[in-house]
Design goal:
heterodimer, A: alpha+beta, Heat Shock Protein 90, five-stranded mixed beta sheet, four-stranded antiparallel beta sheet, 16 helices, B: alpha/beta, Rossmann fold, five-stranded parallel beta sheet, two-stranded antiparallel sheet, globular
Chain lengths: 572, 119
């Protein structure tokens, strides 16, 4: 048993003893009336509730506040029984002064026992100060005199007969102001809570708002010397004594009732996709603002259900974090409304229920991250291949080609010198063919015109070499290098197929930009029947386009021509 | 009098052989340059009648040099040359006014003589 829970039981015992002594004494003196018995019983009920919720760590502070409030009430009652004792009356006055502030404190901090922000804290400081001052001043400096309700009580530090009527009215005004501020804070509290937290708060807050409204009306009545009001005030206190434990119990019941959706959650999560876990949890605990972060142990970081990095802030205002799994090796973190803290048991149960789905989601998130890596590495491989082809083309151009050109010139000179024309002419012809083939090879490896002139120029140079008339529609503009290369090779391969297999009379090449994608299409009016799965050319193209996250489709019904269409993402 | 020609190319063996081809065809080769900077210098100093100018030079484009020459005070005849075909440069290959182009694999004494307007 921890120190706090011991404190709860000890406080409860003290209040119980004081209450019993008070009731017994009143009975013995024959002054016990209906109010005495009802109040006595209500205190026992409230004590029971305080002890029950005090076993719950998140509610322990509330239990202690409730006990403090009860203690103040019992002491205030008991003090009335020793009207001639200065210390007893002073303690009684102080307890009576603290009671409404303790009540406000308990309600505002319900259910965690902690106030949430500066305005609530400020309100409580003012409330405690004003109510204490209200009673302390007369207790120390003036004779307490309440005509008709008790005998004359001398003050602790008597300084003479002081007329407190004016001061009393000022304090009453202050108290009314505080009551109104309390109502505003309570309303704000309700509005800012998640539906689940609101269900827990509602019974106590409604009761408190009602009690406070009555309190304000009565204070206002007392300002206008309506003395009957005090009798009514007693009954409201009594009613409150009954309402508070009932309201706290009712709040507890709503949590218990909400354990029901857990069963539904388990069933719902069994077939849930990762992106459905978060909304399902939010529904089950009644907090639409709930967010889920999955822990990736290999990378030691949190991600959301899509695999994007997520931050889990433990100290964000109004938010709280519940970890699923162990502190060192969590499975996931649930970030939720701070008002749900008292429902931690529910959250943990929901988390356990969702555990399997989390594992699944985590696997999927990892898989997605790996897939993204894979795609990136595929694109890098293609880019590296392109760079390599470009280097080979330059090497061919600067090396072998220059040598052959020079050899050609040398042969030319020889032919002129020696007059051994026939043989040399043959060598020259061979050399010319070698040069031509070398040029074709270099162009096929990487077209220099693509780097220098972009896609429009490169496509037109392809079209110029095509054996059939080709119409071209390529808008000016540059694209990322891998996109230009892929588009160029689509046109190049498709036109090569037109020349080799299609038996076409004409063809058309079009390139256009559509919604962030470059659409390249080559259409011919040939015999069709091409198969994109046979032949390395089209399959290689499909890989190249796929590496850029694009699509390549070939439609080629027999007799209906062939259309090769590539869609390549090219940025905005 | 034989036309004076300047050869601009970054490949030494090509320059050497072209010089001999041109000499054999009756031209007077007055100088050789390996890059655009050297070409500008020699053209200004030697004021040749004609320049055989490689398109791709290590420090710039032969086309740029040709454009400057066309605009300049002393305008020699300019024949651009390259190991690539004209179609490899695309339709946008913009030959400055009055300049000619010959691919290197078609280069010969008679062909140059025709383009340079005779020796």
């Amino acid at each position: 048993m921890t120190q706090r829970s011991l404190a709860v039981v000890a406080c409860a015992a003290v209040v119980a003893v004081l209450n019993t002594v008070d009731v017994a004494r009143q009975a013995r003196l024959g002054v016990a009336d209906a109010e005495t018995w009802v109040a006595g019983a209500a205190v026992y009920l409230a004590l029971g509730v305080a002890v029950v919720i005090g076993r719950w760590p998140e509610r322990r502070r509330t239990a202690l506040l409730m006990l403090a409030w009860l203690l103040a009430g019992v002491v205030a009652d008991a003090g009335l029984d020793w009207p001639d004792s200065r210390p007893a009356v002073t303690v009684w006055l102080l307890a009576a002064a603290l009671q409404p502030s303790l009540y406000a404190h308990m309600v505002l901090s319900y259910p965690t026992g902690r106030v949430r922000d500066r305005s609530e804290r400020g309100f409580l400081v003012v409330a405690y100060s004003v109510t204490l001052l209200w009673q302390l001043a007369p207790a120390l400096f003036a004779d307490f005199h309440c005509p008709g309700c008790s005998p004359h009580v001398p003050s602790l530090l008597f300084v003479g007969q002081v007329n407190l009527t004016v001061l009393g009215k000022v304090f009453s005004g202050l108290i009314i102001g505080l009551g109104l501020a309390f109502l505003v804070l309570v309303a704000r509290r309700l509005r800012g809570s998640s539906p689940a937290a609101r269900r827990t708060l509602l019974p106590l807050v409604l009761a408190a708002a009602f009690a406070c409204a009555e309190f304000i009306v009565l204070r206002a009545a007392s300002l206008s010397d309506w003395s009957q009001a005090f009798g009514v005030l007693n009954w409201i206190d009594l009613a409150n004594l009954l309402v508070v434990p009932s309201a706290v119990l009712a709040g507890l019941m709503t949590i218990r009732r909400h354990r029901g959706p857990l069963g539904d959650l388990v069933i719902e999560l069994r077939a849930a996709r990762p992106d459905q876990i978060e909304p399902a949890l939010a529904r089950a605990v009644g907090d639409p603002s709930l967010e889920l972060a999955l822990w990736l142990p290999e990378e030691q970081r949190f991600v959301d259900c899509d695999g994007a990095p997520a931050t889990v802030e433990r100290d964000a205002p109004g938010r709280a974090v519940t970890l699923v799994g162990s502190e060192d090796e969590p499975v996931a973190a649930i970030v939720h409304d701070a008002g749900l803290v008292e429902q931690r048991a529910l959250l943990e149960a929901a988390g356990s229920a969702a555990s399997l789905a989390f594992q699944n989601a985590r696997l999927q998130a990892t898989l997605r991250a790996q897939l993204a890596d894979l795609r990136a590495s595929r694109a890098r491989i293609v880019a590296a291949g392109d760079a390599e082809r470009k280097r080979v083309e330059r090497d061919l151009h600067d090396g072998a080609q220059q040598r052959l050109l020079a050899a050609g010139l040398a042969l030319q000179l020889l032919a002129a010198d020696r007059g051994n024309g026939e043989l040399l002419a043959e060598a020259q012809a061979e050399l010319q063919s070698a040069l031509r083939e070398l040029r074709e090879l270099a162009r096929g490896i990487h077209p220099a015109i693509l780097t220098d002139g972009g896609l429009p120029a490169a496509v037109r140079s392809l079209v110029d070499r095509a054996p059939v008339p080709v119409t071209v529609d390529v808008p000016d503009g540059r694209y990322p290098e891998p996109v230009e290369s892929a588009a160029y090779f689509v046109v190049s391969e498709a036109l090569a197929n037109v020349a080799k297999h299609a038996h076409a009379r004409s063809a058309a090449v079009s390139v256009m930009r559509d919604n962030g994608r470059l659409v390249v299409q080559v259409r011919d009016d040939g015999r069709g029947g091409a198969d994109d799965q046979s032949g390395t050319g089209l399959r290689g193209l499909s890989d190249r386009v796929g590496a850029l996250n694009g699509d390549l489709t070939v439609s080629s019904a027999p007799g209906a021509g062939t259309t090769v269409r590539a869609e390549i993402p090219c940025g905005s | 009098m034989a036309a004076q020609v300047l050869i601009v190319d970054d490949h030494a063996s090509f320059r050497r052989l072209t010089r001999r081809v041109l000499l054999a065809a009756g031209f007077d080769v007055v100088g050789e340059a390996a890059d655009a900077r050297g070409a500008r210098e020699l053209i200004a100093r030697l004021e040749p009648d004609a320049v055989l100018l490689d398109v791709m030079l290590p420090d710039g484009s032969g086309l740029d040099v040709a454009r400057e020459l066309v605009r300049g005070p002393h305008t020699p005849r300019v024949v651009l040359t390259s190991s690539r075909s004209r179609s490899d440069f695309g339709a946008s290959f913009d030959l400055p006014g009055g300049c000619e182009f010959i691919p290197k694999h078609e280069l010969s004494g008679p062909a140059l003589a025709e383009l340079l307007g005779g020796a």
